[in-house]
Amino acid sequence: MTDIVGLLIAYGMIAAVMGVAGLLLRTGVFSPSLSRKFIHISVSHWWLLAMHFHTAWYWAAIGPVTFIIFNYIAYRTHLLSAMEDPEHRKNLGTVWFPISLLLMVLLTFAGPVPRYVGGIGILTMGYGDGLASIVGRRWGGPRLGAGKSVAGSLTMFLASAVVVALFMLHFHPLGSVAAGSGLPTADRVAAVGLVAAASFSIAAIATVVELATPHGLDNLTVPLLTALSFYALFV
User: Fold this and answer.
1) Which of 43, 74, 102, 189 has the most CB atoms at less than 10 Å from its CB?
2) What is the domain range of residue 100?
3) pLDDT digits (tens, 9 = 90+) for 79-129
4) How far apart are alpha carbons 37 and 1 in whole angstroms?
5) Same structural domain for residues 105 and 135?
C-alpha cells in the first residue's frame, strides 16, 4: 500500500511542479531556462519520496520509466514549454534525467549501493547542476570546460558539498558520531572533520564531472559518478 501512496504523491508532486513552472513562465516571472531548472531541482526530490515509500525496485522504477517515455514524447512534440530547453534539440537532458533515476534505482533498490548514496547522486544533480546553470547564466564570467562558467562551477561545488554533508549527517555512521552529544568532544570534532573532507572531495569530483561532460549528458554522468565515487570511497 505504501508503494501506491508513494506513486500517487510523486505523480501529484511532479504535476504540481510542472503546473507552477508553466504558470510562472506564461506570466513572465520565469524565463524558459529558469523554468526548466526550477523543474530540474524540484523533481530531484522524488528520490526522498522513493526512499520513504517504496519497498522494492520494481515499484521505485515505475516513476522513472513513466517519465522517460513522457519526457521523450514532450521533447519530440514540444508538448511542455516549461521544461523545454530554450535552444531546442541542443540536448536530451530532460530524457537523461529520468534515465539516471532509473539506473540509480537499479543500483540501490536492486543493487549493493545504499539508497541514501543514490540520494547523494540525485540531489547533487538537482541542486548542484541546477543552481550552477542559474548562476552561470545570470553572472557568467570566464568559461571553463564544456562552456561552463567559473561562477557556475563554484556554485556546483558548494551546493554539492552541502548535499553530501546533509546526507552524511543524517544517514552515514559518521553523522551520528558528529551529532552525538554524549560522545567525547575529540571524537565529535574528528567526525565533523571527516564529514567535511568527504563532502568537499565528492563535491570536487561532481564539479569536475560536470565540467567535463557535454551539456545535457551531465544529467546522467553527474549523479552516477558522484554516487559511485562516494560508495567506493566512504561506504
Assistant:
1) 43
2) 1-110
3) 665 555 555 445 566 788 899 999 999 999 999 999 999 999 999 999 998
4) 32
5) no
How far apart are alpha carbons 90 and 93 in whole angstroms?
A: 9
Total domain count, the chain: 2
Q: Which of 110, 141, 172 is the last residue of a domain?
A: 110
pTM of the model: 0.91
Residue-by-residue DSSP string for 69-93: HHHHHHHHHT--GGGS-SSTTS--H
Question: Quick one: 33 and 7 in the same domain?
Answer: yes
The model's pLDDT over 146-185, given as tens digits with 9 standing for 90+, comes to 667 888 999 999 999 999 999 999 999 888 887 776 677 7
For residues 10 and 75, membership in a common domain is answered with: yes
pLDDT in tens, 13-55: 999 998 999 899 889 898 888 888 899 999 999 999 999 999 9
